[in-house]
Amino acid sequence: MLKKRVCETTGGGRGSPPDAAPNARSAALARPRTSRPQMPPRRFRSQPGIRGLLVAMCVLALGVDLAAAGPWGRRRGRTRRTACRVNSAAANVPSRVAAQQARANSPRSLFDGRTLAGWEIADEADFAAHGEVTVRDGRIELEMGSPATGIRRSGATPKLDYEISLEAMRTGGGDFFCGLTFPVGEQYCSLIVGGWGGGVVGLSNIDSVPASDNESASWQDFREGQWYAIRLRVTAEQISVWIDDEQLIDVDTAGHDFDIWWEQEPMRPLGIATWYTSAALRNVKLVKLAPTAAATDEAAGDATADEETAREEAVPGDRHRERR
Fold this sequence. Notes:
By secondary structure, the protein is an alpha+beta fold.
């Protein structure tokens, strides 16, 4: 009996060899345990926590965006867009002026050298007995009238910020061989070259005072058969005149009224006449100048008005909400 218990204690059984139990235990220990899952390395265990933190941060950011998308968020967005439009409009003021300056100083010929295209021969009032007007050798020839001969421009004419240049020559007679009538804004004036006995240069009229007696008057010696380069500039601030590159007239427009003699009415809006004199004209050109400071200020004022309109139209609904 004692021997049997010893065998049971040692794990042996009836019919088992003495070393069978130890070998079975070793095989069981060597067999892999598949019932318990293997845990990943420790460094991967923290990834679910990081992912959760990132998800929480995204949800928080989404909540902030949703809050900003409300009435105040939309209002701020429209305000920013309005500010962009306002700043853009303000920035466009110098750009518009720059564009106008780029187009300036481009002469446009008013005489093609072959025909009177764009011109009309005046035949009213004192021009009824005008002399013959012909085109020959690239120039316009005005024969002596009784008392006047003249041509006027039939197309559109600028009223300010322009320059007219031409060459004129007296070919007979003793009075003005270039009476250039031109607009000054809504008024008109005449540049007289060689009047009152053949030598007066001036503007008729300044405050109803003729060219011979106002501040623009000067006396020049003009020779028959000689070409003279005449240049007239009209801006909102000044009227300036050069003859052969010598400046003879520089009159401020502020505080003055300009008008013309009734005899020169047929020359409006832009015309060239002679008085008991024959003459020749050539190289008649017009240059549209860049806007002066006054015109630039006006453009800036228009842009400011556009900015105010854009600001008012930007957020109409928000203003109602603010009142509530």
